[in-house]
Each structure stands twice: as C-alpha cells, then as structure tokens.
Amino acid sequence: MAWYDSAVFYHIYPLGLCGCKKENTGEAEYHFDILKEWAQHIAKMNFTAIYIGPLFESVGHGYETTDYKKVDIRLGSNHDFKEYVQYCHELGLHVIVDGVFNHVGREFFAFRDVKEKREASAYCNWFCNLNFSGNNEYNDGFCYENWGGYNLLVKLNQQNPQVQEYLFDVIRFWVSEFDIDGIRLDAADVLDFGFMKAMRQVANDVKEDFWLMGEVIHGDYSRWVNDEMLHSVTNYELHKGLYSGHNDHNYFEIAHSIKRLNDICRGRRLYTFVDNHDVARIASKLQNKAHLPLVTILLYTVYGIPSVYYGSEFGIEGQKEQGSDWNLRPALSLADYADAYENNEITKLCRKLGQLKKEYAELTNGTYQELILTNRQFAFGRILDGKECISALNCDDAQASFEIPLCCQNATAKELLDQEAVLYEVTDRQTLKVTLPANTGTVFYVE
C-alpha cells in the first residue's frame, strides 16, 4: 500500500495563511519559519500529509505562474522551501504542491518572447489559438486562448511535445531540488488526456509512490482516476452532498453519492474535502452549526483520502465577498488558537479522528457497507477481516434510537469518540442498539 492510501491531508494556501502581499512587487518576504510552526501543529493534529500551493513565482493569487523553478519571493527562497520539505519529512509528513500546467501568467518567459517577437517567436506553438490579427485589453496586438475568460491566464498547448517536455522537466526539478512527494494538478478537468498519460509515466519514474491528484469538479471521475492517468481527483460531488444533505436533512443524498462514487471508481480513493481555497467554509454553509461534527466524522470515515483546509479544524467561517476568494484565504496565527486542542470541539474531533485513522486499518482498507439509512439517521461500516468501524449519525433535533446489523457473531463493541451521552449495547441478535442524542454522531469499533 502506498503512503497516500492512508493519508490524511492538511491543505494550505500559503500566500493567504502567511498574510503575503496580494501583488508581487519583487520585495522578498520570509515566511517558512511560520510554515514550520504550522507543520508542528499539523503533525500534532495527526495529519500525515500537506498539500501546499500555489507556491511558485507569480504576479498575484499564485495561479498565473511566471517561473516554475522559483519559489514565490513573497514566501521565501528555494533554499527555504527545500529545508521546509526536509523538516516536514522529519515530522513524518509528506508534501505535495500545486502543478499549474494548464495556463501561465503573462510574464512567463515564453509568452514574453511572443509579445516581443510576435510571429517570429520560437514559442508561438506553446500557446493555444494565437491570433495576430486580433487584440485584447492589454493591447498586445494579438489575442489568444485563456482560462476561465481571464487573459491574465494564458492557456498552454499541452499537445506540443516541447511544452510537455518542459513541464516534465519541471516535475523532475521539483523532486530533485525539493524532494516533494506528489502534485495536485490545477484544472485537471481541462488538461489534455494524452498529456496526463505521459505525465503518469514521469511520475512512475521520478520517485517511488509519487502521487498525482487532479482538480476535477464534474463528470465521471474514473475517466481521470485509473492506471494510465491520475491516482485521485477532488471529490466535489460528495463535497456538495455533505453540506446540502445536512441542510435538507437528507442522508439519502449523501449515501447515494458515496455508493455511486465507490461503484464508479472501483476501489480508487478520491480526495475528500468539505471546503478549500475556492469554496465557502463548511461552517458558513451549514444552516445548523451543530451539524459540523457530523460532517467531520463523515469526512474522516467514508472511503477516500480526507483533507482539511487550514483553519477549518478550528471551525472558522468564510464566504466569498463580491466575487473575490481572498476572504476564503485569510492570514491566521496559531497563537490565536493556542487553547483549541483542549477547548475547541472541532479541533479535538479532528485530532481524535486522525488518531483513529492511524490506529484502525478498517478506516483505510475496510469495505464500505451501508447499514442504516433514513432522512435523518445514517450508519455505515468499514469492514476488514471480520472486524468493523461503524459511523453512526443523527442529524435530527431529537434523540434517535435504532439497531445496526453487525457483520460478526458474538461481537463486542466500543465507542471511540468518548461521548458519554451515547448509549449502546450489543444484543443477542448480533445487532448494535444505539441511542444518539440530537445532532450527534460517533464511531464504534466492533470485533
């Protein structure tokens, strides 16, 4: 089993977390000491991997890359990042970074050459649909294909062998120079499939168990997650269900997504999350904040690779403001959350669930089995070698009692989240009789 199969990720948007300037003026900042402090926190919280990005030189939010081989000067130097990765590895944390390979910024060296030399540039074929008869808001005297309607983001021609080899050399550089453990592919849903297949070969060669995870929102995830392309993709379908299923008191929606995705992906683990740098915080999306622990339990115990976005382990809120994402990417100080390990319900729960993920192989390798399903109550098992971890959830405002069928006879059960208000017993019929208070969930171990 590869390291990522059992990983619990912590997602950092570093330009926001560190309070960097929103525009790159060329003035150096140094924040990796702060990021090392966060790495200590991450390890203490029982996370096992960090996804940090965007990380490389850009002009603004980080996804308009200008230099793939230089750490953004607003964060620090290449040497600083190399030391940071080594430090994380010493803490037992793997590190993956953003690979923004669909588009570049306008200051990328090859695009600067096109602006200077126009049709005579050797890099014309590096970009999609250059038209020297057109123009744009920058008055370049030509136009081009962009990403998302933003000419700030110039689309690369991924089918060009020179572009492919350049980006593959970037990957080799990131591994040789920084010793990273994988890449999150930005906008993977619009990347060329042939490009990703060739990238998988590079990943197989560059480092043992090197991980490729893609940002994909809609569609049949198995088109991307397979032996030829990516190891995993972002599970946006379940992300939507996790908040709307609670807001609507509809566990059928969540259960349907889990089963459908498990069937489609045939054992492949999807990257499961409740919020990230592009969407509102889960604490802001839930109409009833008492449901936040329930969502957190689901995040950690469904089949997949769980990820927590920085700050959400403290239950912070955040919405987009006037179309801007910066409110989703705040500067935070660990000193403001010094008492969270003991006094913050969500912090304690994340730490405990991370510990359970390490201790119980069922939560990684256990077969998923739906056990109880109503609009407001849901129980499922993760079954391995005749033992099981069972997640039991009640999103009703009233207490609920129900019986959960067990996979083994003469079983014993223990409740793993130390919730004294949860009542349970194993009956003679090999069932687990459970009483959950209102808006409460827990995890049982049965053997």
Tell me what you see in this structure.
- Keywords: Glycosidase, Hydrolase.
- This is Glycosidase.
- Residues 7-357 form the Glycosyl hydrolase family 13 catalytic domain.
- By secondary structure, the protein is α/β, with parallel strands linked by helices.
- It has 2 domains: 3-102 and 158-359, Alpha-Beta Barrel (TIM Barrel), CATH 3.20.20; 366-446, Golgi alpha-mannosidase II (Immunoglobulin-like, Sandwich).
- It is 30% helix and 23% strand.
- It contains 13 helices and 21 strands.
- It has helices at residues 14-17, 32-44, 78-90, 109-117, 161-178, 193-206, 236-247, 251-265, 282-285, 292-301, 340-343, 345-359, 362-365; strands spanning 9-12, 49-52, 56-58, 65-71, 94-99, 103-105, 146-147, 150-155, 182-185, 211-214, 232-233, 271-273, 305-309, 367-373, 377-384, 387-394, 400-405, 413-415, 423-426, 431-436, 440-446.
- The chain has an 8-stranded parallel beta sheet. It has a 5-stranded antiparallel beta sheet with strand order 14-15-16-21-18.
- Strand 14 and strand 15 form a beta hairpin.
- It is elongated.
- The protein starts with 8 loop residues before the first strand and ends with a strand.
- The mean pLDDT is 97.
How would you sum up the global shape? elongated
> What name goes with the CATH superfamily of the largest domain?
Glycosidases
Question: How is the main sheet built?
Answer: 8 strands, parallel
Summed up, the domain count is 2
Portion in helices: 25-40%
Briefly note the CATH topology name of the largest domain. TIM Barrel
Which stretches of 5+ consecutive residues score pLDDT under 50? Answer: none
